[in-house]
Amino acid sequence: MIYASLLSLYKKYSQFLKYCVGGGTAFVVDFSLLYFLTDIIGIWYLWSATLSFVIAAFVNYLIQKFWTFKVTHKKTNRISKQFFAFLAVQIVGLFINNTAIYALVDQLDIYYLVAKIIAAAIVLIWNFWASKKFVFHQTNEKSEMILAAEIFPPDIGGPATYTYRLAEYLLKRKYKLKIICYSTVLPAQSKEEFGKRITRISSFISLSVKYFLYFFKLLNMALHTRVIYAQGPVAAGLPAMLASIILRKKLVIKVVGDYAWEQAQTLGATRKSIDEWQKYPKSDAPRKSTNLKIKFLNFIEKTTVKKAAAIIVPSQYLKRIVMGWEVPESKIKVIYNSVEFDKQKILSKAEAQKKIGVQGDLIIMVARLVPWKGIDFLISLMPELKKINPNFKLLILGSGKEEGNLKKLIVSLRLEKDVIMPGRIDNSEMFSYYSAASIFVLNSSYEGLSHVILDAMYYRLPIIVTDVGGNGELILDDYNGLLVGYNDKEGWLKAINRLWFDKNLSKRLCSAPLVKMDIFSFERMIKETMKVLEC
């Protein structure tokens, strides 16, 4: 009876027991070398701990691979990929090992060999879990592609919508696909549309832990994939780059802007335009930590795109930006994002204004509330615009970090009745606001390729936008819209005055088609994207 019970326990925990024996053997190697290098040769204990750990890790790998987990591979490249994954786990184990020893020896004054025994026990738990989960995990399920996203529905935003539509298309065509993303919402598995295909990392945990989890989850997923498609060069791009280097997988990165510059603008660390920033990307924040953060982000995004096999950008303008990061032109592919015009509704102006509860001649702007969108300028311009037409009202749709400052500006100028900020509107309701408007405006200092301009075209709104970034790829001045300078008071007043009083001009701009509108079709976007991913 006792024998049977012991045999049952052994069968149940045999793998862990074998791991302990293998780990114990490696520990003897580690411990003996540590003593020899420290007490006999006289090397500083942390250096000797590092060297002994690395040698013992190699011994440990061989034992665990061929005895504990019994994983064999005929292909040499598969073995090397597995070994690199094992090394990544060991590097984390090394950090845990040395940190524990340092804390026990220098902080608690424990004898270094005793400290080593305690540290080894901690590392044993980590190594077994990580080895089983990430290194020697055997599965027949293979993923042809991983979408490494920064956000994904139910979180909202253009990148989330893009990734969702791409994932939906791939699954309909029986592609083996997996998705990983950061998420502010963690749906129950039963309510998860993509089921086990998607892995979500909470956006609310600390940054270092969040990136760490994202990387190791992605590393595990990428063992059985062919290509990683990262939706951005930093939050998704950095873990994807590390995984692709360790496992030698193809990496494709989508770049929709300069994240380092955006953060510098948001944190008040620069007033430079994005084009000026490319020439001299240095932040001028009063806090050194902010400047170091921006410098690090700038380094990361440029490093990741250089390591990628291909980069996808949504405009010619962004292609020039990325080329300025010393990326060969041959690696960069311009693929315009798609717009689903056929699914959008149109209401009469009277119906729409009744629906949204705002009356008047509405000037609409749709944007994130961030410094480079120049929204404060348009608000400050309203007293002058009211002289052109007393019925003008500025309708600002969107949310962002500048929302509080903009609302204070509205109050200080006593424009509460003339400037309306309803916040971020769900895509399903945007048609009401576009249909209610008379003029569309965008006073940004930078745009990669603005989809809200395309929306405004669809709703036949006269358009006034700044002559920056990718705007010139959509708007031809005096043909299908008017181009003005960023924060150019005289230019803006002249353009709005001209547009409002010259009805023939307004009608002509609204009726002028965008050349080659088919380049924004979903079919074209998918075809060109798959060509990059599959080549």
Automatic annotation (TrEMBL):
Residues 156-342 form the Glycosyltransferase subfamily 4-like N-terminal domain. Residues 353-509 form the Glycosyl transferase family domain. Keywords: Membrane, Transmembrane, Transmembrane helix. It comes from the Bacteria. Residues 18-136 form the GtrA/DPMS transmembrane domain. Its main location: membrane. This is GtrA-like protein domain-containing protein. It comes from Candidatus Kuenenbacteria bacterium CG1_02_38_13.
